[in-house]
Amino acid sequence: MNVKINQSFLTVLIVILLLCTSFVVANENYNVELNGKDTEKPKPQINEKKGLNIDFVKPKEGYYYILDREIIPMPFGITRVIGKITLEINVFDDSSEIDYVEIYVDNELKVSLPGPYYEWMLDEPMFYKHNIKAVVYNKLGNNASDELDIRIFSFGHLPKAPSHPEVGIANQSNTDGFNYYNYKDGVGDFVYNQLWYFNFLDDKGTSETSDDIAGVAAYGLANPENLLTGGAVTNSFGMIIRDPIEGNSFPIFSEDYDPTVPGNFYASETFEPEVGPELQNPGGTIDVISPDHYHLEGQVIKDDKEIKWDLNYKRSIGQAWRPWVIWPVPKTLGFIPAWINYHMQMANAVVNGTFYVRDGEQEITYDLVDAKGYHDGFYSEFVFSIFEWNWLDFKQDNLSVHLLYPHAPVYSCQEGWETCTPGNLRVVFDNGMEEKEYNFYRKCDLDQSEIFISYGKLAVDPRYPDVNYPTEAYITAVDQEGNTLSLNWTLTRYMIVYFDVPDPFYDTVTFEIIADFSGTFYEASTNTYVPISGPGWSDWSGQAFPEV
Q: CB within 8 A of 277, min separation 6: which ones?
């Protein structure tokens, strides 16, 4: 009887919070087309502080927060928090480089953050008055601190430790298969999301990246049974990223179709080859010819713009893999367990076919011949905008590098996970005689992590002045055998896509980046250095702010 009462209460609460909203895998509000080489960056703000400084950006002193969102200012300078809260910290030093930031709660060390973003999610059972403190250390050994007293009421409970923190076994059904019914539990099904994503980069082989064409074809699904919110959605979308000399860059999203309506959605639970497509909605299809060969078709139209594709993806080097297996994430709305399965089904593919683009001024059909391709996806019970991620996809003839590494929020898990935010990297190297895979992991103890990322120049987006994005990145990965990746990328051009996510969740902005990559991979067993050079993809996402 008590169980029934609790479930009813939970359902009513969810309905109240989510009434008249819909969860979408991807639904673009507006976008900006920019070229990284030609865009004049805004002048940086002048920081009048001197020396080493640190400040809490969130929570602010004297404000009221509910479930991580700022609500209203409070009298008498009192800071009140209901539910979880992401501690966001700003640091500045004009005398040395920042080394790391420590966060304390009631004088207990919670986490040490290497930067460049200093955010940590406080999501523990806590009641009434507590003290939060942040201490920054620079390379000279100096430190500075800031602290704040908060009144907090939270039943928070740390997510369980990931059951598979390393790479999981991948097959057709546990990657692209429609997994909703395998994970349906009646608790978080209303935020079930699944994405099938494909990209290509047509490298013309010249020293200039301006003649390279990049595109995306993808299919999405959310809330497939129309539970609670009336917001079941399936859609398709296409994207073109090219030099302005070649034409405009833009995404197009199809209409949002209700998958509960017959004929609007079908997906195979096994994704094994059968008669007819393994995925179908009004925007396109995926036909699995074999586990190593997918045929995609689709068409999306908006106003005077159109993208249409007919593409064949055939596996190149490397096998399917799952960097995250049922990875726990902070609870939805503070109390609903949440998780994500993420896979790279065909991280290295050869793409052939046609990609038609009509941008309102011209029509171009790109004939792709052995272009570099990539296919990944996820299925989950969580709202994807909670993560701000850095992803990359680089490949050359004998080597590939792939990474998905969220940079925020950093959060803790049970069983001693200092930071539970996932992040795995894989290098595939073909030396001409055999193909080898090298996996690198973010560990539960940051001191044992095998992946290290730092960022060079950060630019300010002209439309979203509160959102910074990197123009350079430096990735180092070292495993226990001494295999070492040293990889840098520099932005050449980018496009912004704005994802409109229903309240009470944050909208997100994603920077789709085409970059020049360089570096080396060292194979310890053969003492071989492999040079890395050429164009590739990177993504960077952050919380969106209102248009100014």
A: 266, 285, 286, 287
pLDDT confidence tier of residue 60, bands split at 50, 70 and 90: very high
pLDDT given for residue 172 in this prediction? 96
Spatial distance between the Cα atoms of 453 and 283, rounded to a whole number of angstroms: 37
Q: For residues 440 and 344, give the distance between their C-alpha atoms in angstroms, rounded to a whole number.
A: 15
- Integer angstrom CA distances of residue 96 from 50, 189, 473: 11, 49, 20
Please give the Cα distance from 317 to 325 (Å, whole number): 22
What DSSP designation does 318 have?
Answer: S
Residues 436-489 have pLDDT tens digits of 999 998 766 656 778 888 888 788 877 777 777 889 999 999 999 999 999 999
3-state secondary structure of 170: coil
| Nearest of 410, 369, 336 to residue 103 by alpha carbon | 410
Rounded CA-CA distance 476/488 in Å is 9
Residue 287 has pLDDT above 70, yes or no: yes
Q: Which residues contact 121 (CB under 8 A, 6 or more apart)?
A: 68, 84, 85, 86, 87, 330, 409, 410, 411, 412
Rounded Cα–Cα distance for residues 301 and 516 (Å): 31
305 and 284 Cβ atoms separated by less than 8 Å? no
Locus of tokens 């865009």: 39
Confidence band for 295, pLDDT divided at 50, 70 and 90: very high
Q: Which of 110-119, 336-345, 370-379, 495-504 holds the top average pLDDT? A: 370-379
370: left (phi over 0), alpha (psi -120 to 50) or beta: left
In the chain, how many H helices and how many E strands? 2, 34
Residue 76, both tokens: 């008498």
pLDDT tens-digit map of 401-445:
999 877 777 777 777 776 777 778 999 999 888 999 999 987 666
Q: With H, G, I as helix, E, B as strand and everything else as coil, classify residue 305.
A: strand
* Side chain identity, residue 506: Y
Which contiguous run of DSSP H or E holds residue 198? Answer: strand 192-202
Q: Count Cβ atoms within 10 A of the Cβ of residue 47 and give its class: 0-12 exposed, 13-18 middle, 19 or more buried.
A: exposed
Encode pLDDT of 227-247 as tens digits: 876 689 999 999 999 988 888
pTM for this predicted structure? 0.84
The Cα–Cα gap between 405 and 470 comes to: 14
The CA–CA distances, whole Å, from 506 to 202, 224, 423, 509 equal 34, 22, 22, 10
